[in-house]
Every structure is written in structure tokens, then in C-alpha cells.
Write a structure and sequence with these properties.
Layout lengths: L2 H12 L5 E5 L5 H8 L5 E4 L2 H10 L7 E4 L8 H7 L2 E5 L2 H14 L4 E6 L12 H12 L5 E7 L7 H18 L3 E3 L6 H7 L3 E4 L1 H4 L13
Parallel strand pairs: 1-2, 1-8, 2-3, 3-4, 4-5, 5-6, 6-7
Helix pairs in contact: 4-5
Bound molecules: pyridoxal-5'-phosphate (PLP).
The site of pyridoxal-5'-phosphate (PLP) has 13 residues, from β8 and α9.
């Protein structure tokens, strides 16, 4: 059997009921997305707008793909990203959230959002500080043109063992405190731990697809 399909079936078998799989297809060709669509996968994560739009054009005969934006979202890319993606997992600050709601209203859209939280200092990543998210949650949840689905968190590189478990547990309790059902936690290297801690959505790239084959620099933002 095709190794991609074998890996997909094995991951599906291992994921408990109630935990969804977001297939992180950034850096992978449209043909791989098509192959997984044939297995029933619908949710795909991309972090570069141009790369995603090119694949969407190639896959336009598949009407039911669920494209989720997982990359850092610059303010000037909000409108085209909302046109291309039904969901954004990487809403990392107040101004961005407000802007998404305003532009979604103008476009007649209602994107599904995850708030990205930064639970540890990490110069490489954005995200709401938990206190900021708690303080402003009443405003955020009432933004008119969005639907909040959950929290997304990415552990800093090198976090492991008990520290990593604590990280995931903190993310889950913050989601609980805010009344959010969705916990987008866990990537290729740590998803079993994230699932044990209460993740409802794992974002898997390399363990599913193997190493990326599309050079992201081709799609560098200009
Ligand atoms: C690339 C990426 C992933 C997938 O990472 P793997 O380690 O390859 O599974 C998950 N989440 C986000 C936000 C990413 O950018």
C-alpha cells in the first residue's frame, strides 16, 4: 500500500474517539491532499497563503475540503486569508482578533477561530498571554463576525517530559476556564502526550506526510 495511506490509517487507528486530526499539508503537494481526501480526511492546515491558494486551485474539484490557516497572520493578509480559509488557528492577539471580525463582517464571512496562547516565554512564537486572554475574553467572545472554537498552543522547542505534560495541562485548563471546547494541542513529536492531557485536535505534519517537499521560500511573503 502507498506509505502515506498506511501512515494515515495507522494514525487514525491510534487516535481516540473525540480527537480530530488536522493534516498539516504545508510543504506538501496537492496530490497528497487528494490522496488523503480519498481516505475521508477533510481538514488540512497551511501556513502560507500563496502556497495554499495554489493547491486550492489544483483541488477545486473537491468541494468539501476544510482549510485551516495555522501560520503567523500579518494584518495586511487578513482579507485574503479569510477568503481562502474557513478557519484560523493562529489568532495571536487582540488587535488581530478585532481586525478579523471587522473584515469578516465586511466580507459576509464567519470564520472559526482558535486563540493561540503563549504559555511560556518563546521568542520564536506569537500568542496571547493567558492573562490578556482572560481579561479580554468577554470582549473577544462577543466579536460579531467570528466563532471561537478553541485554544491552540505550541510548546517551545526543547520542552519535554513532565514540563511538556504540565504545558498541555495548563492549556486544557485555560480552555476550560474560558468555556472553549476545542484544544488544538499536539504535533508529530508530542501528540500522544497532548492527547493524554485532553487535546481534541492534533496537528500532524511530518509523522503523517514525511518530510516537506515544497520549498517554502518559493512562497515567501512579499
Ligand atoms: C508545521 C506545523 C505543525 C506540524 O508540525 P509537525 O511537527 O510536522 O507535525 C503543527 N502546527 C503548526 C502551527 C505548524 O506550523
Amino acid at each position: 500500500m502507498d506509505p502515506l495511506l498506511a501512515r494515515y490509517r495507522e494514525l487514525r487507528r491510534r487516535l481516540p474517539a473525540g480527537v480530530d486530526l488536522l493534516a498539516v499539508s504545508k510543504g506538501r503537494p496537492a496530490a497528497m491532499i487528494r490522496a488523503l481526501h480519498g481516505e475521508g480526511q477533510r481538514t488540512f492546515g497551511e501556513s502560507r497563503l500563496q502556497e495554499a491558494v495554489a493547491k486550492q486551485a489544483e483541488l477545486s474539484d473537491l468541494p468539501d475540503l476544510d482549510w485551516q490557516f495555522i501560520g503567523r497572520l500579518q494584518a495586511n493578509k487578513v482579507r485574503p486569508v479569510l477568503r481562502a480559509f474557513a478557519a484560523v488557528q493562529s489568532v495571536d492577539g487582540l488587535d488581530l482578533a478585532r481586525r478579523i471580525s471587522r473584515i469578516a463582517a465586511e466580507e459576509g464571512l464567519q470564520p472559526v477561530l482558535h486563540a493561540q496562547v503563549k504559555l511560556r516565554p518563546d521568542p520564536a512564537k506569537g500568542g496571547f498571554a493567558p492573562d490578556v486572554l482572560r481579561q479580554h475574553w468577554d470582549e473577544l467572545r462577543q466579536l460579531p463576525a467570528v466563532r471561537w472554537q478553541g485554544l491552540m498552543a505550541i510548546p517551545p522547542l526543547g520542552l519535554a517530559g513532565a514540563d511538556l505534560e504540565a504545558f498541555f495541562r495548563e492549556a486544557v485548563s485555560l480552555a476550560d476556564a474560558l468555556g472553549l471546547e476545542g484544544r488544538s494541542l499536539g504535533m508529530s513529536g508530542d501528540w500522544p502526550l497532548a492527547v493524554a492531557a485532553g487535546s481534541t485536535l492534533v496537528r500532524l505534519g511530518s509523522t503523517l506526510f514525511g518530510p516537506p517537499s515544497i520549498d517554502g521560500a518559493r512562497f515567501a511573503e512579499r
